[in-house]
Amino acid sequence: SQQGEEDPQALSIQEGENATMNCSYKTSINNLQWYRQNSGRGLVHLILIRSNEREKHSGRLRVTLDTSKKSSSLLITASRAADTASYFCATDAGASYQKVTFGTGTKLQVIP
Amino acid sequence: NAGVTQTPKFQVLKTGQSMTLQCAQDMNHNSMYWYRQDPGMGLRLIYYSASEGTTDKGEVPNGYNVSRLNKREFSLRLESAAPSQTSVYFCASNFQGPLHFGNGTRLTVT
Questions:
Q1: Are B22 and B7 in contact (CB under 8 A)?
Q2: Which of A31, A74, B70, B97 is 20 to 30 A (C-alpha) from B32?
Q3: Which of A88, A94, A96 minimises the CB distance to B42?
């Protein structure tokens, strides 16, 4: 099974609303990252949060990390139609934290 | 600066044929990765190489082999392709931070 599990699997909101998606993982990590993928395209890196950080912001994105619960959340504020995409979390693991695996993803639809 | 370059972009194989997917990065990254993505799914790690000269299995290594030819290049080989290997394959590289992805190879096995 995959290291990361995201929920919800799909999310549909109106433009201007906030979108929250969650990621849970199984083993201790060094970093957690969030990526966006538009349909049929490659992945775009959004934000990286280290295991000793609890919260990080980048523009309209806010990421939190709770290592005690092995979970993270991505909040997109004031969503736009252009935010429609799939969002994935990725965690590193293994002896030297080089094994980077992805979660199952959340498919976000922002309705204009 | 090309980043991560994958070839080919598209490939159609018959069951039992073999092929090698090529990946090269010019960012002097230590780590390189091969993922596959099936329709509507997330990325699953096939193999990774934490540094030149080392390779390790990921989540779904069966049916694949890899070679870390040098620091720049990391190839993925399908020795005997099966329809279950129909997927989009992504190569990526990093140095303790964000992954940089290639544009992907769309592989169909008939």
A1: yes
A2: A74
A3: A88
